[in-house]
Request: fold
Amino acid sequence: MIFEITTSMLAGGLVGFSYYKKTGGGSNDHEKIVRISRNCGLVNKEGKEIRIFRKTRKKNYTEYVYQMPQGLSVNQFQSKIDNFNDGLNIKKTVPDIYFSDFEEIDWKGDVVKQVKKILNKKKKLKKEVEIKFDGMLKFKVFDEELTSDFPFDEELLKKVKGWKIPVGVNRSNELIMHDFEMYPHLALGGATRYGKSNFINSMITTLIINNPDHVKFHLIDLKGGIELCDYENIKQTVSIAYEPEEALNTLKTAYEEMRIMQEKIKKLGKKKIQDTNIKTRHFVIIDEVGELNPEEAVDKKDIRENGVVVHKSEKTIKEECQQYMSKIARLGAGFGFRQILATQYPTGDVIPRQCKQNSDAKLSFKVRNATASNVVLDENGAEDLPRIKGRALYITDQRHIVQTPYIKEEEIRKNIQPHINIRPRKERVESSAEDSKETTERRKYTPIIEETELS
Reply:
């Protein structure tokens, strides 16, 4: 009896000590942070360096708050993030002991040998650092690195309702969501193979699952149709395009439907769709938006006969596409139209300026340099993300580093299969455009009496 009590107390003490070390107990990261800063030259011309103001232990990280000397900027510290991450993890191992280890002891065997084996269990501690500035320089040193395995599954979908989609999980293991009712438009970027297309697929699949009868897609896939072709024949897809000429028709159709929705809302005496009972939301999704940049057009001259354009040049087509995109970005939010612009070549004005200005939410995966990060996010940071698929920087009025959900092909197929309604793409686009045209013509001359979602 005494032996069992003593063993339980010993086990509890060892497990407690293991937890204490895993969560940074007794660590001296403050001195390491100061030393790394000094070695990286992060001192001002007078030789002054950061000074500790406060240390606070949180649930799964320790926050160190410093006074930053005049003449230094937070960007200088953020540019050395790899130095801080590496410096805080040199030869860092901690005990990795759990109560279950002691429960598995065979008391009829060599107990001492088994206990020694448990005591020798070690775990490499991989801390991660976030650096922010809000008048004070703040280092958040997380006990463990952000997971790189975050599956898209039914458990995840239970947490996401309405017009929200999962963006990812952060270092505090909190689910970060994007709400299209709050942030209607989204700019999306990242180098190839880092997770941009996977994110688009998880977004579309979530919207279909949660709003199968009310979501409408206007899809433009300018990467040869390899990314969005799975959704070509589902009932939620109004129009899909694979070439700039088709993209122009898709955007024109979306714009005309937006104007029709504007009239509906106006007749109801309301100013925005959220004030009505209209449940439909339209999503204009463009991947790769860089292919609609007029400056990169090869054919730049229209063909005219008797002063009339008989053939639009590639440049003219792309200019008109960007005009529709800008109009949807400016006007669409209140009428239930959401625009998602994705690029893997974030250079220059690849995302039209007005579209970007009206995108209050931005998500970027790993990019090559700070210039590319600024194109997508309007700030640095995406270039410093680790080379981990699915790792991204999500910015609204807050800034989150997240691991985005990974969705498997079979998960996509399983969820879209019930909605497939095979119909030739050309017929669907022409029918939608014709319907919009006819409705517009009727509105010019006669009152419209039609059944709406309010009926």
Remarks:
- Residues 244-267 form the longest helix (24 residues).
- The chain has two domains: 2-142, 154-445.
- Residues 2-142 form one domain.
- Confidence is low (pLDDT under 50) at residues 14-26, 438-455.
